[in-house]
Amino acid sequence: MRSLSLFDPQSFGNSIIALAVAFALGTLIGFERQYRQRTAGLRTNVLVAVGAAAFTDIGLHLLGGEGAIRVISYVVSGIGFLGAGVIMKDGTHVRGLNTAATLWCSAAVGASSGAGFAAEAVLLTAFVLAGNTLLRPLVNYINRKPMDERVTEACYRVHVVCDPAAAADVRERLYEELEKANYPLREIEILSEGEDEMELAAVLVPTTASPEELDVVVQALETWDEIVSCAWTVSTTA
Question: Of 12, 32, 39, 47, which alpha carbon lies 20 to 30 A from 63's?
């Protein structure tokens, strides 16, 4: 049989080592993800690492270093499709980016194992785990700090509650006041509409802004009798 004629005990031993290293390191990465209840957990990261190792190992056996390079290039691009499956958009927030990046790194760990670079695979695993654990306190510290409108590129909205009959005039006034303040306008949304009141939101192009300048715009709009109330809000960009 052709399979028996191609069997090489030394090559087979190398494959066992490569897959075992990928399995062990994928387990370490996946355990951290599973512990934090992420979408792609223990089994997913292990399978990604082992699969990348297996493909790289096959390419290495068939065509040597050139074959391994070819396979790795396809692994790098192909794992992106798997990562896209764990990225979800929830309103204005995007979730799963970190999990997708971890899967990408698990594939790199597997490819390193399959190519015979076990030490490099261990080193990469250590950095992946450090990124997902040691950096967490720093991320939490940054996230807890209040947003500084002067230095943060964010999405600003100027909200106006007005008489529905005067909506067209209020739109024009919004354009005028924001243009006067040199703030580019992306669009004007209708947030709610009733018989007596309508809420509009002028969405600015994501940029940095001065709270004092936006306060001036709000004060100018509030002088209009057709406008019941006016305020501005800021949120992080996606």
Answer: 47
- Tokens (6 digits) for 235: 């949120």
Which domain, by its residues, includes 103? Answer: 2-144
Count the domains in the chain. 2
Cα(9)–Cα(79) distance, rounded to whole angstroms?
Answer: 31
Q: What is the DSSP secondary structure assignment for residue 39, as one 8-state letter?
A: S
**CA distances (Å), origin 26, targets 75, 129, 218:** 16, 11, 54
Q: How many angstroms separate the Cα of 55 from the Cα of each of 10, 22, 82, 137?
A: 18, 12, 16, 36
Read off the pLDDT of residues 181-229 as tens digits, 9 standing for 90 and up.
Answer: 888 888 888 888 888 888 988 888 766 677 888 888 888 888 888 888 8
Give residue for tokens 């996606």: 238
Verify that 23 and 130 share a domain, yes or no: yes
Q: What is the pTM of this model?
A: 0.60
| CB-based contact 180:212 (threshold 8 Å) | no
Indicate whether 22 pLDDT > 90: yes
- Beta strands, E only, 48-179: 88-90, 93-95, 154-162
pLDDT tens digit sequence for 37-94: 877 789 989 999 999 999 898 888 878 878 888 888 888 888 877 777 777 766 556 6
Q: Mark whether 72 and 30 lie in a shared domain.
A: yes
